[in-house]
């Protein structure tokens, strides 16, 4: 009897994903490690310096900004809130933003995100949506650079049915406005999410998916660069092109796209480059802080988990068979379990390929 198995879609249905808000649009500056990166938990502003010596630079910035505030610099209030928002000290950030929400459009934007996601305040999606609508309807010239991001966030609310009535059609309309036909100054996050939206079975249009991922990739989206590599590899939405697939996956992988790294592990394995398979997989399986990776790369946590699951499964297979590394059944079992824990669907699909002697 012929064995048949449903082929899973190119990417996971977006309805199963937890989307994230668009960050406050601002000029790129040198990124320093945050307090959370250093393992420091959220604390009120007045206890930061007392509890941790490493927070001296934050304390100095706090003192400087509070001095400017006393001198009447209203912009310093926003900067103080932003300082603590970026450090993950959301309660303090909320206090500062809330003081100027009626006069500072950027503070209003940050409050919208905080209410929607429950950062430093009780979750209130309706108020978050209300604030985003105030931004897109504002005549204030200072709101112009925020509007694309606000349209993305409203699309997210419509898609999730959280703060707005659920509607895929309305979410698509709002994201198309936010993406602005690939404008690099628009919402690149919206361009990426449209690529994912058109990959899912419920709204599949792979040519549109390829277009939006191409636009987003050209505008710097790491997530879209990884998906483009997979589309080239499988011939979804574009003719198969293994060389272009290799270039996209390699570049995305080097930039920290874990989903691309997982597929690159699979690519090495399929080409019988077992030493390269093991070398990359050994690095990927060590990842354990998915939220932090998602924050640093702006990639979806669910796809990061999928990338780790793929790397763990192929590494386990190499350990089981002694391919590119010393055979070790105990270690192989350990990494098979890790693949299952990271993403059961990925592990199940790869296990089926083992049964079918594909891998």
Task: Outline the secondary-structure elements.
Blueprint: H1 45-51, H2 56-70, H3 75-86, H4 90-99, H5 105-117, H6 125-136, H7 144-160, H8 168-179, H9 188-197, H10 206-218, H11 222-234, H12 242-254, H13 258-270, H14 274-284, H15 290-297, H16 301-321, H17 329-342, H18 344-355
Helix pairs in contact: 2-3, 3-4, 4-5, 5-6, 6-7, 7-8, 8-9, 9-10, 10-11, 11-12, 12-13, 13-14, 13-16, 14-16, 16-17, 16-18, 17-18
Outline:
With 359 residues, this protein is mostly helical. The chain contains 18 helices and no strands.
Would you mind describing this structure in some detail?
The protein has helices at 45-51, 56-70, 75-86, 90-99, 105-117, 125-136, 144-160, 168-179, 188-197, 206-218, 222-234, 242-254, 258-270, 274-284, 290-297, 301-321, 329-342, 344-355. The longest helix is centred in the C-terminal third of the chain and has 21 residues, at 301-321. Helix 14 (274-284) crosses helix 16 and helix 17 packs across helix 18. It has 18 helices and no strands. The model is unreliable at 1-16 and 28-54 (pLDDT under 50). It is mainly α. It is globular, with a radius of gyration of 23 Å. The protein is 63% helix and 0% strand.
């Amino acid at each position: 009897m012929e064995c048949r198995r449903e082929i899973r879609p190119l990417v996971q249905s977006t309805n199963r994903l937890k989307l994230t808000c668009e960050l406050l649009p601002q000029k790129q500056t040198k990124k320093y490690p945050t307090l959370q990166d250093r393992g420091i938990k959220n604390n009120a502003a007045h206890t930061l310096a007392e509890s941790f010596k490493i927070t001296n630079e934050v304390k100095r910035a706090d003192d400087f900004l509070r001095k400017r505030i006393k001198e009447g610099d209203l912009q310093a209030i926003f900067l103080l809130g932003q300082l603590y928002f970026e450090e993950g000290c959301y309660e303090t950030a909320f206090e500062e933003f809330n003081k100027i929400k009626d006069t500072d459009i950027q503070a209003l934007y940050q409050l919208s995100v905080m209410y929607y996601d429950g950062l430093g305040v009780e979750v209130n999606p309706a108020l978050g949506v209300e604030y985003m609508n105030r931004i897109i309807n504002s005549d204030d010239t200072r709101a112009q650079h925020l509007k694309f991001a606000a349209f993305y966030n409203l699309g997210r609310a419509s898609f999730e049915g959280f703060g707005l009535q659920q509607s895929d059609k309305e979410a698509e309309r709002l994201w198309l406005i936010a993406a602005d036909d690939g404008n690099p100054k628009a919402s690149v996050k919206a361009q990426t999410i449209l690529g994912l939206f058109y990959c899912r079975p419920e709204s599949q249009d792979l040519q549109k998916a390829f277009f939006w991922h191409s636009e987003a990739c050209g505008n710097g989206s790491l997530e879209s660069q990884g998906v483009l590599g997979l589309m080239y590899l499988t011939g979804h939405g574009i003719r198969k092109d293994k060389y272009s697939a290799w270039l996209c996956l390699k570049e995305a992988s080097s930039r920290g796209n874990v989903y691309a790294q997982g597929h690159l592990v699979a690519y090495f394995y399929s080409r019988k480059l077992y030493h390269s398979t093991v070398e990359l997989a050994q690095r990927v399986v060590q990842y354990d802080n998915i939220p932090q990776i998602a924050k640093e790369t702006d990639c979806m946590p669910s796809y990061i988990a999928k990338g780790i699951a793929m790397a763990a499964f192929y590494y386990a297979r190499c350990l089981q068979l002694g391919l590119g590394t010393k055979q070790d059944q105990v270690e192989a079992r350990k990494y098979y379990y890790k693949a299952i824990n990271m993403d059961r669907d990925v592990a199940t699909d790869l296990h089926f390929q083992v049964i079918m002697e594909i891998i």
